[in-house]
Amino acid sequence: MTTVHREIQIDCGHRVPDHASKCRSPHGHRYRIIATCGGEVLSEPGNPENGMVIDFGNIKMAMMDVLDGIFDHAFVISHQDTMMMDWYFPGEDPNKVLQRFNAEIDRQLSAYGIEGNAIQLPRGVDGYKAVPVNYTPTAENMARHMFDLMDKALNHRTNELRLINIRLYETPNCYVDYERAA
0.85 exceeded by the pTM? Predict the structure, then answer.
């Protein structure tokens, strides 16, 4: 198997409500996301990806459509974080907001193809981009979520390409790896 890696960067906010220090406050990061894909090098004359596992541009397009489309300049909120849910979705039931967002993401991912159709999410109050999730938005949980989203986006491909890993840098010195279970 040959592995290829592609990186993008996004700006995203979150808070870790149970944290005992400053991460309890709303804040943001310049995240670096590296997707690692693996598979056999294609040997199909006439195929635009002949001699490649996947074109780097196609990985980038999927990462931009999905990860950038969902998370860039967004605030990631645990649906159990009542303070932030009330801020972004005042008066709405957090469980229903989460269900609405998940249903919309699933709908768009099920129709996704590398044709340039970025994921478009519903917006919170005043058009703010907020992403309700069913986990505490730590780097560990966000990397797992990003892996699941990218895996679905790349699933339509016909070759044996597999997403192997998402590496998420929260700071220049700290990162998390989420890998496919063996």
Answer: yes
